Amino acid sequence: EDLAFPDRGRTRSVLIPATGRRLPFTYWLQPGKAPVVYIVPGLGSHRLALSSLALAELVYKNGFSAVCLSSPFNPEFMENASTAALPAYLPVDGHDLHAALTEIDHRLNALNPGRLGDKALLGYSMGAFDSLYVAATAPANQSPLLRFDRYVAIDTPVRLLQGVSKLDEFYQSPLQWPDASRTDDIENTFLKVAALSKSTLTPQTSLPFNAIESKFLIGLSFRLVLRDIIYSSQRRHNQGVLQHAIWKFRRDPVYQEILRYSYQDYFAKFVIPYYQARRLPSEALEKAGDLRTYDAGLRANPDIRVIVNQNDFLLSEDDLAWLRATFAPEHLTVFPQGGHLGNLDNPLVQKSILGALAGLTPGRPDPVKPPK
Questions:
Q1: Does residue 20 come out as left (phi exceeding 0), alpha (psi in the -120 to 50 range) or beta?
Q2: What is the pLDDT of residues 138-157, one digit of tens each?
Q3: Of 34, 124, 185, 186, which cross-links 154 as Cys (Cβ 3.0–4.6 Å)?
């Protein structure tokens, strides 16, 4: 809402001991002591993605300090904080995330002594999935990792493989169009996108896409995320799967090759061989990417709050039933509409997010400065 808000954040970096590299993070601190909300974004998203900024602004203007870092599936995190070449195995990704958050918290405490109060971990989409893993495994951590007073998971998937298979399905939506007109239909979809990019969009804007076009655009956006994941992983650990050279300054040939790979291909041709070489069978990989595996730890943690939408395309009926059976009614909020992250602008959803942070003592909000 405040166009100057992103510029008021400060960006620092922290040394990750396990990699010897520095991971950037961006933060907005209240002027006095206040609880801190650490925000983990969705699949492949950067710390300054619009949803991350919107959530940071929401909590900041309500008295909390906010800290954003990139997704474990984002190249910034992969290249600086990941101990594995390929993200996909939740015990490794979740631990790397937790370790990075711990180092960030230590750095902020050193820079701003006495200003960090209670700590909350707020994730959305894949970030929510990661955050719930951290919540479920927190009591078993042997190392001195950061302890959180609250965990907030917004629009979390339950099963990683089921969720990414839906993204593959969406990308293939144009196959429902007749062969003779498919190329023209795809081109027309992009023309609509180009026309929209020249207009001012609001949450109330009615978008001119039918169901197939909408699914295709969602699938395409996540396919580009996958392109970056594969490129970054193979540049650091080339498994010999890609035929084109992996050049930093001439990426188009290898990008075009990578775009032919689906999420199913990513697991079958990259992730599973990588972990099999480390004596981890594919069955263990799939089990680790299912929140139901951590059922006992999730049930035992009273500090978890979950917010989802009943019509989220990443959730099946069985997933919703499991969420309802796992979390107490007062700790689970299910909105009837909103799809996947489609209702964050809704005042009731924002009220629910702030309600999930209730009990953490808010600080004094920094006076809102007008945009320059």
A1: left
A2: 887 767 899 999 999 999 99
A3: 124
**Mean pLDDT value of segment 248-261:** 94
H-run or E-run covering 55: helix 50-60
Is residue 204 pLDDT above 80, yes or no?
A: no
* Residue 159 DSSP class: B
Distance CA 302, CA 124 (A): 19
Q: Which two tokens stand for residue 118?
A: 């209670």
pLDDT (average), residues 259-284: 96
C-alpha 347/C-alpha 351 separation (Å) is 6
Residue 80: phi, psi to the nearest 5? Answer: -120, -25
**Is residue 365 pLDDT above 60, yes or no?**
no
Reference 89, options 297, 233, 259, 223; nearest CA is 233
Phi-psi region of 155 (alpha: psi -120 to 50; beta: other; left: phi over 0): left
